[in-house]
Design a protein that fits this description.
The structure holds two protein chains of two kinds. Chain A is built from four helices and twelve strands. By secondary structure, chain A is mainly beta. In chain A, the strands form three sheets. In chain A, strands 2, 5, 10, 11 and 12 form a five-stranded mixed β-sheet that branches. Chain A has a four-stranded antiparallel β-sheet with strand order 4-3-8-9, with no helix packed on it. Chain A is globular and about 50 Å long. The relative contact order of chain A is 0.21. The N terminus of chain A is likely disordered. In chain B, strands 1, 4, 7, 8 and 9 form a five-stranded mixed β-sheet that branches. Chain B is globular and about 35 Å long. Chain B has one domain: Aromatic compound dioxygenase (Protocatechuate 3,4-Dioxygenase, subunit A). Chain B is mainly β. In chain B, a hairpin with a 6-residue loop joins strand 5 and strand 6. Helix content of chain B is 7%, strand content 25%. The chains are: A mainly beta, B mainly beta. The complex binds fe (ii) ion. Fe (ii) ion binds next to strand 8 of chain A. The site of fe (ii) ion has 3 residues of chain A, from strand 8.
Amino acid sequence: MTVTPVPVLSGWEAETLTQADIVAEIAALASHDAVEGAPQTRTNYPPYRSSILRHPTKELRYADPETIELWSPCFSERDVHPLEADLTLGAHHGWNSQVTGQPIGERITVSGRVLDGDGRPVVGQLVEVWQANAAGRYVHKNEQHDAPIDPNFAGIGRCITGSDGSYWFQTIKPGPYPWGNHRNAWRPAHIHFSFFGREFTQRLITQMYFPGDPLFALDPIYHSISDLQDRNALVAAYDHELSVPEHSLGFRWDVVLSGPNRTWMEEA
Amino acid sequence: MTGLNALLRTTPGQTIGPYLGQGLPFTGDNQLVPHGTTGAICLHGVVYDGNGAPIEDALVEIWQAAPDGTVAQAAGSLDRDGWTFTGWGRAACDRTGEYSFTTVLPGATEDGKPPFFAVVVFARGLLDKLFTRIYLPGHPANTADPLLCSLDEAQRATLVATEDAVGHLRFDIYLQGDRETVFLRHG
Ligand SMILES: [Fe+2]
């Protein structure tokens, strides 16, 4: 059997470090989880080896948001074509627009609402997604996983939130994939999501997971979030109402952005 | 971080991961104004890790006022027409860790306040976004800015760009180390 080359993210250590070692590190750090006032996501989280040299070592400095930070860039239908919300179409801006075939995989709908901390919908803002294909492979120059490329799947989508803060994507369920954090490391299946709010300070990039993934217990990126309630907030719920007969399974995932800091006024 | 009066718990961030290049860059993402625009500058720098090694899988976004201090509320960043100033740009780092923007200098949004570029940084290995600011070198209002005034000289230097002979602005970002950039929280 040949060994699949995966991106070596942490040098020689990745060869000898086992999944059991990582699980033990996760457990050790979990014992002082959920400290009041601590950041929800720990940037200093050694079980994710690449974080060791890439987290700030000093406390974040509090700064009152200034005018520019209290506003957000604007996006609209001018920026995003409605078809960009359907990743199963194959065609995308500049990507293989000749493709007309269907991607292979479990067809899914992912939809939900983007809200601020006061529960108000975030209207008319940009949502971006990128993901692996059904076999767990990205379309990216650094990708080394030898799972098959799907010529009909680019794995990128965009949409603009509706008047109720809702977003909607049609796609296929991404596969789990191996990575180089330690020996036999696998990421739970996930979709990368990027959100803009009404204020620059609300900017969010995160990952959406699928319910019941057996890899949760093993994944240091998922566990970099201290609180179980916060981790659960990244897991979509199966929603039969969103499933389309004879076509696709539905998943619902709502997102809450930070703040607001700015006094909110009804938009005309 | 949840807001003071927030009713709902904020959804936590996660790392952008290694495959940001698949989903996020787009044509013209780092050109807030077209090359050759009167007053256009290059804003550039390198993102470094704790060993001083450049990070090739980082993403930098900027959000800024127009030169007259107004805050743009125009769509069109993803489909730039060459005329509309949207104030927002995105730059993925290249293999040498370098990012660059073609833009114009921001103006002060209020009298007496120093202009700055609002910045957010993402990277593989960085589990959540980091906010910072790029202040303009030698701007007279810098000396009255509450954030800059609260920092010692070395920390302050991490938030102020340097200008080269042709007027380009350089702003390196250090995630760790002696020159670690001052990163901000707003809530
Ligand atoms: Fe991923």
